[in-house]
Amino acid sequence: MTSTVDSEEAVRAAAERIAATGVSGLRFGRDPVNEPMIRSWTEALGDTDPRYPELAPPAMAQVWTMMGLHGERDPADPFGQILEVLDEAGYPSIVATNCEQTYHRYLRPGETLAVTTRLDQVTGPKRTALGEGWFVTVHNTWYSGAEAVAEMLFRVYKYRPAPPPPPAGIPPLVSKDTEFFWAGAALGELRIQRCGACGELRHPPGPMCPRCQELRPEHVVVSGLGTVYSFVVHHHPAVPGHTGPFVIALVELAEGPRMVGELLDVEPSEVHIGQSVRVEFQRRGEFAIPAWRAVEV
After folding, report:
1. Which domain holds residue 46?
2. Does the model's pTM come out above 0.70?
3. Which residues lie below 8 Å from residue 131, measured CB to CB, with a gap of 6+?
4. Rounded mean pLDDT of the chain?
5. What mean pLDDT is predicted for residues 28-44?
6. Are residues 36 and 143 located together in one domain of the fold?
């Protein structure tokens, strides 16, 4: 197995070899500088300079030699060569980081441009938020005939994507009726709504008591003990923050109301109706979610 150090040295050696080949041959544009393309460009950018389209905007220099959707890079092109080296070294992703352009003069319709490329610099490996990778800088020069008309230093970051952080799960929907519940969960309290008129406990929370229709909600902190009233084993679809299969239980609290939550660290075959459980709050980003854990009685 190739070590990381060997891989890094191989990239550096390849970069030196490619850079030593110097400037690539001329690659000619598919079309000459033309007024329709200039009009499309300036209209898209809202550029109303009256000199266009009799002249081409300098920043269009790269446009005239783009390879197009189905274009193929010359095998001798230094940029393509170093990208291939980095692909093989395990850095498959790419993002452009910056470019510096220099314009020697305006271009006119009818001129046909050609571009050369040389590998300017390869630095790395570096670590960024995207992952570990290499910064690659190439130098392009555009010619009209034998005259250099524009230049560009173009830099990309070729990297191995960092593994994504574990998902925090789906945040709960907090409303005026439920905010007391989630505030309690954040404190490690299992709060259940109680009617301020008749004392009926109810879950999920709501604005009106289903027993006496009064609009006087309160809440109490319950023991967090209960039993499995029913359950399902979830296989599909995938749920952020979870690895299936996992158990979702309908728990009957010791105080009476029933509520749904995940049954933690248990094989589906071990779950049974009437099983004793205790609430356990799981952190999911900014929220604490009540779940259940089997307990011995």
Report:
1. 4-161
2. no
3. 93, 159, 160, 161, 162
4. 93
5. 96
6. yes
